[in-house]
């Protein structure tokens, strides 16, 4: 089993949200992949907002849309991309079902400056 972590920041109303993905390759029927959102304090300290949200199979890349309202996770284990809404306070919630990434082994995500494409 391999473990890795991915980070990104800039979400929410004021851009003071950071997200972290903890990816673990599925071991049998177990997949403990999850994404957590944190509030970034004035002093840089992180405070987790909610329990981590389950991810869809070993997230390997995170990207926040320029609006700060959407988080995208590339799931290496399932070759999909998941979308999460980011509330004004930085809390995240899954939005829709994961979609195919178009690659068998996706490794990262980027959102275009206008936020239209991942």
Could you explain how this protein is built, in words?
- With 118 residues, this protein is mainly beta.
- The radius of gyration is 14 Å and the shape is globular.
Instruction: Please state the structural category.
Output: mainly beta
- Return the average pLDDT rounded to an integer: 84
Alpha plus pi helix count: 0
Biggest β-sheet, characterized? 5 strands, antiparallel
Unreliable stretches (pLDDT < 50, length at least 5) are none
Distance between the termini: 28 Å
Indicate the percent of residues in helices: under 10%
Written as H for each helix and E for each strand, in order along the chain, the element string is: EEEEEEEEEE
Strand content: 35-45%
Please give the number of β-strands: 10
Report the radius of gyration as a whole number of Å: 14 Å
Question: Could you give a quick summary of the protein structure above?
Answer:
This protein has 118 residues and is an all-beta fold. The chain is 0% helix and 45% strand.
SSE layout and pairing:
Layout: E1 3-11, E2 17-24, E3 34-40, E4 46-48, E5 53-54, E6 59-64, E7 70-75, E8 80-86, E9 92-94, E10 99-100
Antiparallel strand pairs: 1-2, 2-3, 3-4, 3-5, 6-7, 7-8, 8-9, 8-10
């Amino acid at each position: 089993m391999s473990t890795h972590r991915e980070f990104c920041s800039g979400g929410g109303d004021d851009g003071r949200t950071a997200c972290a993905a903890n990816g673990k390759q599925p071991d049998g029927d177990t997949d403990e992949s999850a994404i957590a959102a944190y509030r970034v304090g004035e002093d840089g300290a992180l405070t987790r907002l909610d329990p981590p949200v389950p991810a869809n199979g070993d997230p390997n890349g995170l990207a926040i849309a320029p609006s700060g309202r959407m988080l995208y996770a590339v799931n290496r284990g399932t070759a999909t991309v998941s979308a999460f809404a980011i509330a004004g306070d930085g809390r995240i919630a899954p939005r829709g079902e994961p979609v195919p990434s178009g690659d068998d082994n996706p490794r990262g995500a980027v959102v275009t400056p206008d936020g239209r494409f991942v």
